[in-house]
Amino acid sequence: QSALTQPRSVSGSPGQSVTISCAGTSRDVGGYDYVSWYQQQPGKAPKLMISDVTKRPSGVPDRFSGSKSGNTASLTISGLQAEDEADYYCCSYAGSYTFVFGSGTKVTVL
Amino acid sequence: QLQLQESGPGLVKPSETLSLTCSVSGGSITSSSHYWGWIRQSPGKGLEWIGSIYYSGSTHHNPSLKSRATMSVDTSKKQFSLKLSSVTAADTAVYFCARHGYTYGALIPFDYWGQGNLVTVSS
User: Fold this and answer.
1) pLDDT of res. B65
2) Which pick of A5, A30, B56, B97 has the fewest CB atoms within 10 Å?
C-alpha cells in the first residue's frame, strides 16, 4: 500500500486558482469514488474539505472543489485567500476497509 | 458536538509497546455506521492510516503495520485504544484518532479528529 502521489508544493497569488493532483492506481483512486481531501494548518488536526471526490461538507467555502479522472484526483482552490495557506492531503479508499493517504502538498499564498 | 481526545505517554523506549487511548464525548461510540480509526504523522511527513475498529471489536489494519498494531474498544468507557509493539525511532509521530464509517453502501470519510498526541521513541 503506497502513499498516493501529490506535488510537494503549489503556490498562487490571492484571487488566483491552484490545483493539487493526487495520483493513485486502479486499486485505490481509480477504483472507487471515495476520495477525500483534508486541510491541515500547522500544529492542528486535519480538517475534511471534500468527500466522495466532489462533495463539500457544510461550512466549507465553495471555492474548494474536487474532481477525478482515471487514477488521478484533483483539488482546486479558486479565488485563493491567505487563510487557504496550509498543507493538503488526499485520501482514498483502497478496498477491504483500508485507506491510503497522499504524500501531502503545501499551498503557499504569495 | 462530537469530540475525540487522545491520551498516552509522550515517550516510549525502543523495542517497547506504544499505548494510546482515544476518548469519545458528545456522541455514541456504538453507532452502527461508524468506525474509529488511528492515523499517524511522522515529523515533517504525511499522514498514514494505521487501522480502524468497530464498536463490536471488528478491526481493519494497514497491511504494512498489521503485525505490530493491536486495537481494542471499551464501549462502557467510550474509549478505543491502540497498541503498537516493538517500536523504533521510525514510529515517532503524532498519533491522531478519528471517526469514519459506512452507511447504506456509502463511505463516511474521516470527519471528526482528535487534536493529536506526539509520541517520541527514544532511549
Assistant:
1) 85
2) B56
Length of chain B as a residue count? 123
Bridge partners (DSSP) listed for residue A70: none
Q: Is A62 exposed, middle or buried (0-12, 13-18, 19+ CB in 10 A)?
A: exposed
> pLDDT for B94-109, tens place per residue?
999 999 998 887 889 9
CA distance B48 to A43: 17
pLDDT at B66: 66
- Are B50 and B37 a contacting pair, CB within 8 Å? yes
> Quick one: how many helices (H) and strands (E) in chain A?
0, 9
What is the per-residue DSSP string for A81-100?
-GGG-EEEEEEEE-STT-EE
> Distance (Å) from the C-alpha of residue A16 to the closest C-alpha of chain B?
26
Q: Name the strand (E) or helix (H) holding B37.
A: strand B34-41
The pLDDT tens digits of the residues spanning A13-44 come to 999 999 999 999 999 999 999 999 999 999 99
The x, y and z cell numbers of residue B29, run together, are 461510540
- Are residues A104 and B46, on separate chains, in Cβ contact within 8 Å? yes
